[in-house]
Amino acid sequence: MYGHNGRVTTHPAPSPTQTDDCRPSLTVSPLSLDDAQDFARIFKAVADPTRLRLVSLVAAHEQQEACVCDLTEPVGLGQPTVSHHLKILVDAGVLHREKRGIWSYYSLEADTLNRLSAFLSPE
Amino acid sequence: MYGHNGRVTTHPAPSPTQTDDCRPSLTVSPLSLDDAQDFARIFKAVADPTRLRLVSLVAAHEQQEACVCDLTEPVGLGQPTVSHHLKILVDAGVLHREKRGIWSYYSLEADTLNRLSAFLSPE
């Protein structure tokens, strides 16, 4: 669902109308089991203090992208551990990974964050 | 929408200014460890398909509140299991519990959902 190919997803960012009309919301009607499992999987990826800090560090980094070498020192963890956390965030569609040369660069998946935010909004 | 009868919370909903100025955001600046731990704790509570369905069932129920007896059948689980999940949601501040007579009634903590939604919004 969140697969990428050179920053192209199969689910383009929705218009506000699409968000209001089609996307599941936690507070509008009872969730289907499929939707509940889908959102629980993404929330599980962000339900960790280190992973939340990694997302915020990527967002605050120059051009809103960072490589693992930029992230190890701020979170005080080694590269293998940070890479493990980043993989979980990429697999959940919260971060996007792009390989350039010998480094992978991570950036936000704004569509996923918008989707989570709209899902939780009680308005 | 959430200020129904008998529903007094200790956390009034913030004004938009408070949300913009004072509350942590995932994408505005690097999160402190305290904020990361605080939000990770709440996300952990909702990172479960059954608990997400329980929240959505409470929201969709008459007057946006429900007792455990209203919730067991829709999720197909026994009362002790449902009560366990509801306790996790109450402890995380996602649901509010109010005892009336022999039953406890659960309703949404709109302030917590607004806080999570604003935290995740990349805009």
TrEMBL record, chains A, B:
Keywords: DNA-binding, Transcription, Transcription regulation. Residues 1-26 are annotated as: Disordered. One of its GO terms (molecular function) is DNA binding. Pfam families: HTH_5. CDD domains: HTH_ARSR. NCBIfam families: HTH_metalloreg. This is Transcriptional regulator, ArsR family. It comes from Brevibacterium siliguriense.
